[in-house]
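Hello, quick one for you while I still have it in my head. No rush at all, and the record is pasted right below.
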Amino acid sequence: MKRTLYLEKIHHYLKVHPICAILGARQVGKTTLARQFAAEYSKPAEFFDLENPIHLASLETPLLTLSNYNDRLVVIDEIQRKPELFPILRVLVDDPVKKYTFLILGSASRELIQQSSETLAGRIGYIELPPFTLIDVNDSSKLLIRGGFPRSYLAESEDDSFLWRENYITTFLERDLPSFGFDVPTARMHRFWMMLCFYHGQNFNAQEIAQSLMTSDKTVTKYLEILAGTFMIRILQPWFENIKKRQVKTPKIYFRDSGIFNTLSSIRSITHLAKTPKIGPLWEGFALEQIINMLQIRSGDCYFWSTSNEAELDLLIFKEGKRLGFEFKYSDSPKITKSMLIAWEDLKLDHLYIIFPGAFRFPLSEHITACGLDVFAGTL
């Protein structure tokens, strides 16, 4: 499947920077995207996969090896395995005579790959690649139950998809996290991840989870940061406005992939999901993730808003100088609420959208629109 939006973003970024980083979860399609880009790029490409022992050995002398490829696109996969390459890349791209172009792929966030931010400042552009979204596919029900990991979404059956996700979770816990340098007990992390299903779309309560796991608040916060840094969980921070009302300060958490949530919750089909009380919160988190990716909003520009008098807004984003608010309602008859009107007034929103599972769009007021998720996707 060709993800045109992200191919165009790589082209754009490499016009501005000599290095482009594609970051995203394991098995999300980074390597496939890089190969598609390389196939249509103006220069020949050279690939280094740092999980391949031969490629890893060839980069034991990275300056000598990489300096031979100034006339090529150099793709380095799983860059987080060898962060000491970043200073070498800086030396090469700063060469006043030779022109180097690098496309690097990583399965950890830029916060976890600190060296790239510090060493390559001004020389690198970051693209976050999510699993498939409604930008890529048009079956929202299938996407909701299977999630967007390519092998899960494209599996031949629901059983095959569920099995793939079960194995993905096991591999992630037993192999990937240790390979990223995280020394965490596999069983405890698995239990913690399952417990987060009950906090999806809610404020993160570190103390409550710590008591259940019989560990410290600090430890569960560390576990959350690991899952966020490996693109499993979204931590949505509260927005602070200079207003008189006291505001909620605890972040909310969301599963970034609904298929992973369903697997950890033992939900195997859309029929099964429809019979559980989790469908409302799951759909609302799913819709939030879709909107963020449809509008290509950076994680640092996404917030929720809530006050002590129970006025709240599910998602506040800043795009092209505008403040846009979103409420997500698993309902077939969305309506304006008092909370929305308070959010509209206090946050001085340019527009507020109520996103619901319907297939149509209609105005509720001059500045508030009810819009089906699939319809919103079709307007982009």
Remarks:
- The longest helix spans residues 158-179.
